[in-house]
Specification:
Blueprint lengths: L10 H15 L11 H7 L4 H13 L3 E4 L3 E4 L3 H28 L3 H13 L1
Antiparallel strand pairs: 1-2
Helix pairs in contact: 1-3, 2-3
Length: 122
């Protein structure tokens, strides 16, 4: 996971997305422990409150849960939940815009599918 202080995206969001990526790739398995807030703050040289804010986003979404006195853990079912979340974001950020532009250009659904298949074939 990398934190880019020059990125327009807030650091706490970068922390949350980095943890999400780790969950999706298996670096943080379901029911496994994630690094502590102190570890995040020391490793990335950020304020612990910033790390906590990013982690709390995932706690609020039931992706991470706290075991008092033990640490933070990945919830069972987190991978499927994150896949669904990211698929919805993908549709909202890319597919819906693609469809709008295709309609403006007079490109049919079949033509879009053919273009996508051509892209995957490369």
């Amino acid at each position: 996971m990398q934190i880019d202080i020059n990125n327009e995206k807030p650091i706490f969001i970068q922390i949350a997305e980095g943890i999400e990526d780790g969950i999706l790739t298996g670096a943080f398995p379901e029911e496994g422990q994630i690094p502590s807030i102190t570890e995040f703050s020391v490793n990335y040289k950020i304020n612990p409150a910033t790390a906590l804010k990013g982690i709390n986003l995932l706690v609020d979404e039931n992706i991470i849960f706290k075991k008092r006195g033990v640490g933070m853990f990945v919830a069972k079912g987190a991978v499927k939940q994150l896949q669904k979340k990211r698929q919805d974001q993908f549709y909202d950020n890319y597919i819906s815009r693609l469809i709008e532009e295709a309609k403006r250009l007079g490109i049919s659904g079949d033509e879009i599918i053919a273009m996508i298949e051509r892209g995957f074939a490369k």
